[in-house]
Amino acid sequence: MALEKLRASLADVPVVRFGDYEYFVHPITDGIPLGRPEVLEEVLDGIAKLGNWSRCDKIVTAESMGFPLAAGLSLRVRKPYVFVRKRQYGLPGEVSLKQATGYSKTDMFINNILRGDRIAFVDDVISTGGTLRAIVTALRRIGAEVVDVLIVFDKTKEKARLERELGLRIQTLMRVEVVDGKLVERP
To answer: Which carries the bigger pLDDT value, residue 144 or residue 187?
Structure first.
């Protein structure tokens, strides 16, 4: 997968610190700097090629930067999408979970997932694995099966451990890391 536009978009990406956590600011992960449709299109094409859509009933993502990914994939692969939200609606069947990332903790809420649903989880970045771990655990508690995990940026060096822990293969488009205050692609 070439990903030239995504690769070029890494140049001059701001890196900010939240305590000890180095957070990169990219249009795919934050909506700033300005998001370019050609980069999003390349990312969506790449993720669409990674997924096994015949095994999937629903696309699930976490609030908020997974929203454009899930919606765009839904149009490409003709599967409905579900947003795991940070807002409680109190609807029948709503499931709550606790999410912890490298820089925050929050409650999240799942609606529209049923026992037996086959899920492709899509997200912008995996770093600590906190969001993925919490959502996969909650989906399994509902009785859904996670059949694919598709992530744009892999910032973790713990992917193999997460895969073993969750019993899932995590597919990513690009491995990145922050080196000397700069975001760089990792081999």
So the answer is: 144
